[in-house]
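Hi W., the adenosine-5'-diphosphate complex you wanted:
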Amino acid sequence: MKGQKNGQMSAKESVAVTMRTLRLLCHIYPGAIISRIAQIIWNALTPYVGIWFSARIISELAGERNPAELRNLVLLALFSAAVISLIGGLLGRWSDAENSRTWFADNYLFVDKNLRMDFVQLDNPETQNLLSVIQANRNSGGWGIQRLMWSLDNLVSSVFSTLGGVALVISFFTSRVPERAGSWRVLDNPVFLVLLVAAMIGIPCLSSALGNKVGKYYASSAANHRLSNNLFSWFSFKGHDRTAAGDMRMYRIDKLCMKYSTDKTGLFDSQGYFAKLARGKVGLLNIMSNVVIRMFMMLVYLYVCLKAWTGAFGVGEITQYIGALSNITSSMGNFLRIWGDIRNNAPFLKQMFEYLDLPNDMYQGSLTTEKRTDGDYEVEFRNVSFRYPGADAYALRNISLKFRVGEHLAVVGCNGSGKTTFIKLLCRLYDPTEGEILLNGIDIRKYDYQQYMAIFSVVFQDFKLFPYTIAQNVAAAGQYDIERVKDCLQKAGFGERLAEMKEGADTYLTRQRNDNGVDISGGEAQKIAIARALYKDAPFVLLDEPTAALDPLAEAEVYARFHSIVGGRTAVYISHRLSSCRFCDKILVFSEGRIVQQGAHDGLLQEENGVYAKLWNAQAQYYAE
Ligand code: ADP
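Structure:
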């Protein structure tokens, strides 16, 4: 691509993506940007006040030494330093407070996108991969928003530092070497000034260009950096993870870590990639970049001192001019360096927008599902087939069935027969590849998605609870009806355990957020998840293996109370344990993505060669006397 080398983007593209990110940041955290800029301007300009006072004091000491004048200068210098640091402190606190939220806001950009993204897109391994690359780049090198914030800081600081410096240095260019200095008057020759200004712009640029080459090396090694960071975080943090502690001990996984910690050729180790770069090209470029700038500053010192020595200005001004010139010089260098940073960072910002711009292709209907008081809903699958994106085989094939509100439906079948996929289609996490699903005779795509989701309570196989209180987990909200929370927990079989808890439903799950938090077993978690589904009070309850983690007694208890748990709601109940399906009105038997049998338990058992009878007999033999 034109203007694009080694994955770097063209200048125009880099500016466009950087401006887009800045607009986004101004939108999500304007306070952070404003406070940061105010603090940086203050910090860039105020050093000149100290430089100016120092110059005046030295001039006075080297000249008339008037005690009253000296006292006034010193008092003013101290007073201004105090005011500067006080205001600087206040600005710093304001900026810290505003910026402490930016980490959360940056993360929320992605969380919000994930929540709004079509599930099919979110579930796509490529999407997940893109997100993990973005996050790993951010964590390993600050690439993306964080780098842009650093560049913004540098830019504002350099602009104001240059402006302040120019204001203090103008008199340097206008002061003349007196006639008595004889041939030294050559120092006033405009050639010197032109050379000085040219060098002040050119040399820092050269130094920064070398520095930017270093930045480019780091940007181009982001993939290596990421990999190494992953290894590092895995071994550093997994070692402390108590859920992995058993396996770590049993199989001495730490020995595997040793392999990496003793390997000197690892990315960050003494024989690794970065060490080699530092000893080789990158190190050399860094040295050259510093040497060039130092040598130039030596010449500046020489020129300023010579002009002072020949009488163009007093000794006090030396401090002022050297300070201002060196600040301007380093700001000049910064401009090019910032430009380099922006160019290096642009591909990472582009990648971030690739994610944030992922389109939602699922059709969004607008029909209301009207939460009917009569609860009269009818669902129909009409010749539905489904293939996961990127998969060759169909996960579901020609599914046709109808069920009415209040029906209790069991779904059984071997692993991989399509049971969970059936639930996912019903909740419209995916749309059918062929055929249609109807709610009260209307294609579910035509309903408002949020409203459609609201009519389902689901306990997924891999449900998640969160480190909040039990009540907050059940209600999925901060405000809730505590009596209803307790009632749902009771119905889900968590009543006895709840009664043992000192803080009842206000008990926190895990100690992540509260010292008195409790750890619960898989079975107890499953009961809380069932209670959460009941609290939602939706007309459809979908339970995917709801008793998989329960012990046989708890399981029997859930079955016994199944009707009181789901009440008059429509329930779809996936289970591996066929004994649990006996009390359902209808059993659907899935095999290789198709419904191969349906009916009540006794009838299905009659079909001796049917899948149901085979599954039943396979399980029953272990329970036979
Ligand atoms: P069950 O719930 O009966 O165990 P699933 O509905 O989970 O079966 O899976 C049905 C088929 O779809 C299986 O072949 C499975 O490998 C495949 N499958 C499930 N989830 C995905 C996915 N996210 N991407 C691709 N294939 C999948």
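Residues 1-6 have pLDDT under 50 and may be disordered.

W.
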